[in-house]
Amino acid sequence: SLAVAGGSLLWRANQGNEAARQDIEAVAQAALLARQDGDRELLRVLLDPSDAAWVDQQLDKARTLPGSEITAALSVERVELNGDRGLAAVIETQADGGQLRKLAYFRRRDGQWLLAPAEPALLGDQAQQESAHFTVTYRPPDEPFVGDLINAAEGAYVTLCGELRCRDDSRPLTLQLQYDPDSAAAGTDGGLDVPSPWLSGVDQDGRPTPALYQELVRQLAMQLAPATAPEAAPALWQAVGAWAVSDLAGAALPGVALFQERLRAGELPLPLDMVWSEIAIEDNVANDLAMAQMSQMLAFVQATYGADAAGKLIEGAPRHLHT
Description:
The protein has 323 residues and is of the alpha+beta class. It contains eleven helices and ten strands. It has helices spanning 17-37, 40-45, 52-64, 143-164, 197-200, 210-228, 234-249, 256-264, 272-281, 288-305, 309-314, and strands at 2-5, 8-11, 73-82, 85-93, 99-109, 112-115, 127-130, 134-138, 173-178, 191-195. The radius of gyration is 22 Å and the shape is globular.
């Protein structure tokens, strides 16, 4: 069974696990090669066919995933067996040599181990912890991370509420750690769904990657912004999320490459009143340049005027911006 200590997964080996580990590792490595080569037919035979929609999702990802986001190498450290189900602790080696530990699901069908849809129940029963502004739901492998996650969430909440001029701080937010890569990071009405550290990756020092905190901040900002600008177009809330990740979580502001392309072509950025109209009023989320410039606008006013400047700006939505 699965046990947790000091941020590491400890596995109590049972008879036959090493043979299963080797078989599962071979399947995982073959699937990695299929993704690297864009070989969707090879990948298909390595997937559990019981969920056709899930299979299609995996094949679509293999076709569209940028090469820079594909793991360079992979090994299986441990497995836990539960009948025809297998839960594997996987080590992914990145192109820069860094390593991430993740969990992966497998199922044995007709004597062959196959990659399978997530089954979070294999990780144990859900548990909850509460803080001033959050109710956090998680499963046993993530218990060592929950304290730090709550501290990060509360810190981001206080900062963003100051910057965005929160009008409603009485309702607790649900913060649910997700264990299915195809459902995580969707966000819910009144809550946050962020990937478990074992889904987004645990680094060589046993810490969650920055991607987890960035997703937490993005979703939190998108939950808080509507209270400040309830009549704004949802595209504005997305731009607020992108700005907040840069402001609090160390991510780069979007749009740098777009700006460089326009400058090389002798074109200027969009006028600010057009940016505001496209995003805050027309909800044109498909306008990548306007979305990027909206996030840049928020960053500029916050850096220049400080305090709650970003909140004051979005409070103007959906009225037109006069420049």
